[in-house]
Amino acid sequence: MSLIKWLAAAMVVVAPAISQAVVIAPGSGWQQFAFEGNGSAWDTTFTVNLSSSAWLQVADAYMAGDRFEVFANGLSLGLTSQPLGFGDYTADFDAAIGDARWSSGQFLLGAGQYEITGIATLSPFGSGGGAVQIAPVPEPETYALMGLGLVGLVAARRRKHR
Predict the structure, then answer these.
(1) Backbone angles phi, psi at 33, to 5 degrees
(2) Listed residue (39, 18, 32, 11) closest to 120, CA to CA
(3) Cα(135)–Cα(137) distance, rounded to whole angstroms?
(4) Which domains occur in the chain, in start order?
(5) Among 63, 75, 113, 146, which residue's beta carbon has the most beta carbons within 10 A?
C-alpha cells in the first residue's frame, strides 16, 4: 500500500475520534470547544435545529487573545471581535462575551437546521478554547412589556418627587 493510501485510510479511522458532534438548542447554555492553534478547526461540530430565529453566540474564554471565524453549513458567518486583551483569564463565558478583552460574536440564524463549526484565526498561545450557545430572539411583546415597565417607573418617580 502506498504511503498516501495508508495516510488516507488512517485519517478515515482517526478523524471521527478527533472531532465530536454536539446537538444544542435555545436555552441549553454554553457548549465548549477546543482548538490547536492558528488556522485549526474547533474540535466540536454543533448541530442546531431551530423552529424560529435565534442568536448564535460565540465567546473566547480562558486566556484572552483568540479570535474565530464561524461557519454555518460550511458558509462563513463572519469573524468574532478583535480581542483587546492578551493573557487575561476567565472560565466564565457570560463574563467573556461582555468583556472586550475576549473575542466574541453574535450571529442571527433563521429557522432551519445548521451545522456550526469554526476555526481559530488568531491564537497567540498555540491552543485554547471557547464556547457557543443559542439564545432566543426576544419577541416584540417582550419589548412592549419592558417599555411599559419603564414608563411605570418614570411615572412613579415623578409622582414621588412632587
Answers:
(1) -140, 165
(2) 39
(3) 7
(4) 3-161 (2.60.120)
(5) 63
